[in-house]
Amino acid sequence: MTPGKTFAIGGDLEVNRLGFGAMRVLGRDRWWGEPDDREYSLRLIRRAVELGCNLIDTAHSYGAGISEMLIGEALHPYRDGVVVATKGGMHRVGEETFGDARPETLRRECEESLRRLRLERIDLYQLHRVDPNVPLEESAGTLAALREEGKIRHIGLSNVGVSQLERARRIVPIVSVQNRYSVVDREHEPVLEACERAGIAFLPYSPLEGGRSLPGGMTRRDALRWLLDRSPVVCPIPGTSSIEHLEDNVAAAA
């Protein structure tokens, strides 16, 4: 399967433009604890790679690290060309999320992610959320230091506006932005346009809005095709807890 065209994130991470978001590998609407069916979760992750989704996106906060652990268990040793992206700097307690992008937190979470993913270097490490209590420049500077130390290869941002993207780019090269975006939620259109001008990958999360609220007659496949046609820098990362839905998503991009 070759999902549309490829995109070289950071100029050297060649990925198929349909990735796999691993937030829901624990099971439907699960954030914490062990997965509903561990073996099924491992098969789901492996199936994504088999189908050509060589960009696997997760986060330190997904399942309090269990998503990362499952990816490491399912895919290590990694096939050539598999790009693992994770995020740090956001915590979830119950239904509430909050940013914690202090340098010591980002360093600790990066080390924990390396261990869980069974990697010596993370391909793409993203600031999950800007912390209002920490200057963005300080957080970006910490990620720049981690890159210099060889612990991460490239740096991305998540949940940012255009001005925040530009501020971070003055500190360190930014190769990706991950914001909520779909055919029915285009709030971050200006961010996408800024990414397109700069050749930065735009990784829309919740690209299918959970299959809900799609415009009249539009299917999940239509919604993914719309995203892939919207811009060559768009690399959707739909997540699912179902192998059947995963296969349907990939068919949409074939």
What distinguishing features does this structure have?
254 residues; alpha/beta; two-stranded antiparallel ribbon; TIM Barrel; 8 helices
Give the helix tally: 8
Q: What is the count of β-strands?
A: 11
Tally of individual domains: 1
How confident is the prediction overall: mean pLDDT? 92
Largest sheet: 7 strands, parallel
Gap from first CA to last CA: 6 Å
Beta content: 15-25%
Helix coverage percent:
25-40%
* Class per helix and strand makeup: alpha/beta
Topology-level CATH name: TIM Barrel
Please, what is the CATH homologous superfamily? NADP-dependent oxidoreductase domain
Q: Rg, please?
A: 17 Å
Shape estimate: globular
Strand order of the largest sheet: 3-4-5-8-9-10-11
- The string of secondary-structure elements, in order, is EEEHEHEEEHEHEHEHEHH
Low-confidence stretches: none
CATH architecture: Alpha-Beta Barrel
Class, according to the CATH hierarchy? Alpha Beta
In short:
This protein has 254 residues and is α/β, with parallel strands linked by helices. It is built from eight helices and eleven strands.
Account of the protein in words:
The structure is a single chain. With 254 residues, the chain is of the alpha/beta class. Helix content is 35%, strand content 18%. The protein has one domain: TIM Barrel. The chain is built from 8 helices and 11 strands. It has a 7-stranded parallel β-sheet, covered by helices on one side. Strands 1-2 form a two-stranded antiparallel sheet. β1 (6-9) and β2 form a beta hairpin. The relative contact order is 0.16.
